[in-house]
């Protein structure tokens, strides 16, 4: 909706004016926008808000003193719009009313203000701190509501404080000068931040988050684990309240710290303490009083900076020592080794160890004895060749030794290692494994962990194949997410994960040699993303739980076969974004209730598919007309099969009087079990290529070729029609509703009729080939009651030759046929 319409709805909500009509229009607008991919507008809702709701707002506030507060205005709006469109009584000196509007940027503010408006451009530090605390409190309310725990705001307030506090430690702390290069640091991604929060235990609900799943659609969550859903909700809420936004870049100008609360706190060095090395290692009990430690170092030890942040502790909690040690981008190797030797053994409570982008060549064995370690990041450690040996103290850990990281949830690394210790891959609690650019990795045995939910493999993985044990191990595990990016192996050209019992998300990007991909029968699979698969020819997503199909998939350059049979959850298909179409495409919309049942308005989006050749429709129970606009499709459509469309009335019904199109390429048309079907195509629509016509079990069909308004007189021609089959059409009276007109069908050879007792007259045929008669197979009683127009000018009966069943096979001629052989 337009910003003005959103403001009208918000004001009406605060005044308690929203009624059932508003909620009905809102639901209709959201459904229409969703199923039409945003093509349909919101005109009906806007008219209701501006013409019915706005006058009610004016009547409610008229002659009253009021305060209007608009927070986080993201788009410019003139102040005159508040009176002209929102119909608010003016806020002036004599009315006593006031408007207070806060914008998300200076640009929005400057474009919105009018002459005479008072603008408060700066606040004191104390004012900003009050606003930050208030925003955190309000965000906690929204978070608790989003996860369905409105009665536990206190818990989610603690969660919001912890998550916000920890994010400040991960972000760069000191502001850079205006001419500094800010691209030297690595931006913290959304997924990394959520993993850190989860490893600290911040995202654990006080009770099962019953409504998290219900809010997935509203916040656009694509992950399937509850932890990631809650993390996404928190990040979205922080963004809405201007607490933080990703990617985060430290402020370089004096006015930039007010962009978000995180910018302000980082710029002024608040929350995070900065200690020297002496204070770190020589003060008694120092490490016991620290919650999270981050060390930043350039090329020399003199440049190192310690950032210390105590955990957010309430009066119900006690400190448990240091739980996070972040050494990312620590580039001075001697200091790093000395640091690990001295400090790591003292951190028995450590749950996060970040060694990413460090020059380590081997991993210290003390890492594998951190009993509480939940996240280990080795991303960017390009010199690391072994995950087992460490020579600084002479201690070693062989690949077969048992490690004690049984609580490890997340392992993220990109190294030169050639193997992964079996004890790691079998870790019972390992939740997520991210392998980035490990070109030397010979074998991947990472699918055996009984708790492993997510595996992400990215980089130029040229030497390995998917293990054959993947299906066997996953059948008793819980793998839900498999992402592969940059698979350049020419050894494997097919991926087949048919019937995988737990996988929910599958991503395959930049795999130029994969030709066949089958995920058929993965009944929990909801998200599929496929890109840069230049060789993919066949894709089977049948019997999955996919709700949406990305537009990139049907547009893959070499895709010849796309199967979507039995995908009952598929709610929309990107028809409007199709650039090409597979040679074979099967879409089986067999959903019931609120599934894939398109109404007429939404169905219009699918009509203009210029290159569609084969079309199969089944169980689309809200569809009344298969085609309404067929100008471009009629040139390419060759085979159509329609089955079990309960509301279908016409196969083709043009939108306008003069919009009738021809079906120049249509060869085979099959319709069955459409109980409300009345007519097929207008008489004006030419079918020059039609070879077979089958209409079965359509009990309401009255005619096949019907008269269209403003139709021009034509001689109807079916030049290559060879066979027509009509079965169980009890109301069918004529093939063409102008019974005296002749049809030109020189190639017509066979007519099969069963259960069409109202069909008393066959169409007149032009005598292009007088020696060839159409063979008619039907009940003897029906044949005897046919009416013929034989006179001196026409030889109606001579155009047809009976080929009736034997008398003993015609005992119960009017029995209803319940099934038939195809």
UniProtKB/TrEMBL annotation:
Transmembrane regions listed in the UniProt entry: none
* Keyword annotations from UniProtKB, A to Z: Leucine-rich repeat, Repeat
Residue intervals of the Disease resistance protein At4g27190-like leucine-rich repeats domain: 661-762
Q: InterPro entries this protein is in?
A: At4g27190-like_LRR, Leu-rich_rpt_typical-subtyp, LRR_dom_sf, Plant_NBS-LRR
Domain of life (superkingdom): Eukaryota
Protein name, per record = Disease resistance protein At4g27190-like leucine-rich repeats domain-containing protein
Ranked from the top, the taxonomy reads: Eukaryota, Viridiplantae, Streptophyta, Embryophyta, Tracheophyta
